[in-house]
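Our consortium's second objective concerns turning raw sequence data into structural hypotheses that experimental partners can test. To show how far this objective has progressed, the report includes one record in full. It was chosen at random from the queue rather than selected for favorable results. The single chain below, 407 residues long, was entered without modification.
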Amino acid sequence: MAPNWDLAFAVVPRVAAFFSLLGSGFIVYEVISDVKKRKKVYHRIMCGMSCFDIIGSICYFLGRWPMPADGLSGFGLSGGVGTDATCKTQAFFGQAVVGTVTYNAVLAVQYFMIVNLSMSETTIAKKYEKIMHAIPFFMWIATAIIGLSFGALNPAFFNCWITPAPINCAAAGEIPNGRPPCERGYYAPILQWAIFYGPIWALIIVVTFIMASVYASVRKLEKANSKYTGSQTSTKADSAKRSRMVAKQGLWYLFPFYATWVFPVATEITEMATAQYFNPMVILVAFFLPFQGALNFIIYMRPRFIKYRKKHQSWNICYIIYRTVRKSLCCIAKDEDDMFASGIGTSVVSRTSVLNRESAVAEYNRRNTIDAKDQTIEPATRKSSVTFADGEDVDAEEEKVEEGAEA
């Protein structure tokens, strides 16, 4: 039985875009709802990146709906209910993905400033942050306007994009092989590289070199610290540890780059060389291209997940993920956090299963409300963040990993 490519092109990008919307929306919500995070450059950059990804994911989720009904009729593909205007609008806003990738470069620069240049949070915020947010916006608007001015925003396989119309016409730089002449977007193949793949891969290369430099700087710092002794060793070691954690988290953000863009570039190179599109490769593009927001979310939550797993080895993976997400949604009761702050969590919660965890919370609340005259148990001191038995603060540890604290 032959695969139903029409159905696959319609469904796959929407599924990926849905998860990307969830991931990016989650990041935006966490940053906006947390006053502490709103004050951090790292989190504001992640919020801006996620906003751009939300725009792109919405365009991918709309799929072929904005296309004219006959946009891809020659290929046996259906689903268009829009007009040329709605198609161009979708493609225009779809260029926001270029801004998303630019934000990844901005994030790498921020890591470089912290680790290599030893800049403080305040310095970055006052001198550089405005332009950090302005550049991605410029990249999106500029590339979208160029594509629109050349008439290159037209129906593609699973959404409107930079492509000639009809999609199988003999455009600039392509092998004719009996193809029909182009009605619009003759220079679309050139523009695909000039305003989409070219800038994206240039940014990926730049980010890779920046993060390699950050990692090299950390290694150099570690070697230099080995020369110190006594109290100097402790101070230098703490600094090196923080830098290493920051650099490692930054390197993880390269993964969404490569996972997202390797298949689109490979597909375009194949099409230019053979004058053919191969459906399996296009399906991979349809999935990974809208999926970047979900991948960014996984990396964004990685420090918190690792911290919970390290501190609570008895918890299973599913419960750690649940706690990680639940904490981000501000759903963990303060009383439950207080259990960990007071140390009761290590003697009660760590020895309970997921099923009776609520009973442990209730028991803690009962003990904490005993009449003050009965000095059997003193109420625990309340804290705004979760602290474990060894006194380490989860939020503080996350910040060390994510963007580094000010020296």
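The partners drew two points from this record. Residues 331-356, 370-397, 403-407 have pLDDT under 50 and may be disordered. Residues 74 and 166 are 9 Å apart (CA to CA). Both points have been shared with the crystallography group to help prioritize constructs.
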